[in-house]
Amino acid sequence: MTVESTAPRKPRRSAGSKAGTTGTKRTTRASAKKSPGTDPELVQLLTPEGERVKNAEYDPYVTGLTPDELRGLYRDMVLTRRFDAEATSLQRQGELGLWASLLGQEAAQIGSGRALHDDDYVFPTYREHGVAWCRGVDPTNLLGMFRGVNNGGWDPNSNNFHLYTIVIGSQTLHATGYAMGVAKDGADSAVIAYFGDGASSQGDVAESFTFSAVYNAPVVFFCQNNQWAISEPTEKQSRVPLYQRAQGFGFPGVRVDGNDVLACLAVTKWALERARNGEGPTLVEAFTYRMGAHTTSDDPTRYRGDEERLAWEAKDPILRLRRYLEASNHADEGFFAELENESEALGKRVREAVRAMPDPDHFAIFENVYADGHALVDEERARFAAYQASFADTEGGH
To answer: Which of 256, 251, 181, 188 is closest to 220 using CA atoms?
Structure first.
């Protein structure tokens, strides 16, 4: 394994000298080169077959996990996937205008989400449903925006989880600015920004890398590389692995198996620890795969084949942890059966909650545009009210 990173509280090593996944083998940059189409070098603690891989550097971050905590990670992933599947079904039924599925990315989100402290702050994209789950945001609150009844549905400061960001990459700048403020306040907390491989090509992301490095901001950039920026593959965006981009900005980058919840948990804990210790930003590239469509308006069969998808389904993050739990005797059939019942109950609750959401106030769009009001907004509100009143079958302009 070769990663461009520095270990916590250890002397900086030259690039390419990091310990391998066994914790014993070291490779040089030359020997780490791989031919096109082969799997990348990455941090992995759990194989697709559910076998535990030792890693001297990252094991300390997960060796203390109890069987209850391991089952908790599995539960998080299962319930997140169930909620996500229900949201997709609701969109197909016309109950939601759009939905961005996280299918296949559960380990990256749950692993990183459970690495956070309560006082850490999260800046998500529009696909971080698993991280929202970890932050205690009710799943039904995620759906209001996609149903068109609100602009977010939750108070960001209640869970330190910012509202979803649709503009690609802009949240990395928000996170960097917030992290700079955290540093100036002397707070003992960290910030994490989520973005995809497609967003890594945006100028906003490059600018956030520059500012965070120069100001030594306590921020972790967590890139979920699901390998498809809608229909554009990663190799059309970068000639090097994405985590290596951090080198040019002067901070470490690590590539982790994004389908391995233990590895994602460990690497994110390490990166957040660096941030809290005043060691600056880190780029974590979670190498995973988007098993479904980019959104429900996308047809992935037009640009990728079934063979690729099937190969990644064999690396399913949930099945991987289940195999480990079973082999370690940490979970029995009773646990899985109970979780299945809980999963179905969650799906029913989400379905009923979405259908019961009230229509928004038509005039709410004019609120909070300016803190103290504005003459132009007042004029636009009056014109809209007159337009609404022109319909004979409405009451009071609504």
So the answer is: 251
Q: How many helices (H) and strands (E) does the chain have?
A: 13, 7
Which residue out of 294, 320, 324, 330 is catalytically annotated? 294
Phi/psi of residue 146, each to 5°? -75, -15
Rg (alpha carbons) of the chain, rounded to whole number: 22
Q: Is the dihedral of CA 61, 214, 216, 112 positive or negative?
A: negative
The answer to whether 317 touches 259, Cβ cutoff 8 Å, is: yes
Q: Which of 303, 355, 370, 398 is catalytic?
A: 303
First-to-last C-alpha distance (Å) of the chain: 62
From the list 311, 309, 326, 267, the residue with the least C-alpha distance to 50 is 326
Q: Which residue has the tokens 């990256």?
A: 108
- What is the pLDDT at residue 354? 97
Question: Which residues have CB under 8 Å from 48's CB, separation 6+?
Answer: 259, 314, 315, 316, 320
Nearest to 208 by CA among 193, 198, 197: 193
Q: Tens digit of pLDDT for each residue in 337-363?
A: 999 999 999 999 999 999 999 998 889
Residue 171 to residue 205: CA distance in whole angstroms:
9
Q: Which helix (H) or strand (E) holds 285?
A: strand 282-287
Instruction: In whole angstroms, give the CA distance from residue 63 to residue 65.
Output: 6
Phi, psi of 112 (to 5 degrees): -70, -35
Q: What share of the chain is helix, strand, coil (3-state, %, to 5)?
A: 45, 10, 45
Q: Which of 82, 135, 147, 290 is catalytic?
A: 290
Record the pTM: 0.86
290 is catalytic: yes
The mean-pLDDT minimum among 269-278, 318-327, 367-376 falls in 367-376
Which pLDDT value is given to residue 7? 39
The answer to whether 239 and 245 are in contact (CB under 8 A) is: no
**pLDDT 10s digits, 280-299:** 999 999 999 999 999 999 99
Average pLDDT over the chain reads 90
Please indicate whether residue 349 is annotated as part of the active site: no
Q: Is the pLDDT of residue 27 over 50?
A: no
Q: How far is CA 152 from CA 47, 142, 171, 192, in A?
A: 37, 7, 15, 19
Q: What is the DSSP secondary-structure string of 68-97?
A: HHHHHHHHHHHHHHHHHHHHHHHHHTTSSS
147: annotated active-site residue: no
